Hints:
- By secondary structure, this protein is mainly beta.
- It contains 1 helix and 13 strands; from the N terminus they run βββββαββββββββ.
Amino acid sequence: TPVLAQKSNVANREVPTDVTALRMTYDAGKQQVVFEGGVKVVRPDFELDADRLIIYLKSKPKAAESAQEEDPLAGMSGGDVDKLVALGNVKMRKDGRTGDCGKATYYLDRELMVMEQNPVLRDGENSIRGQVINFYVSENRSEVLGGKGEPVRATFKSSNQSGDKNPLNIE
């Protein structure tokens, strides 16, 4: 059975999310689930690898806390997840595109993936990098921010349709 089932914008249905790792720790006091060592997250529409994954759970009302004391796994349902933070050698794959960074934070409510620590997005031979990459999942839109000494850098490959070796007539 999947560890988490998250809502997907695709027909607003739940899709399974499987997480595997060498170790998992659940801390009810911190409202965190931590996966460590060879972390792999697999969904039908997305894959992620990292050294460590921290799942932050939403705070529970007092009534729900007493119910959770009776069933410690009750707080791990997909609807209770606030955000996920992947750390160390983060690699993502979605629809033929890839992304690499040192830290990736996914905010479930906003469907926003924030990539930090040398983030790079690749689509075939095209790539873009900057200080921070904000990827708005439901909109399939990204925003790349540069910083002091670290400007946004994009590399685009395009074919020369006309076969002209000097399409801009530069001599």
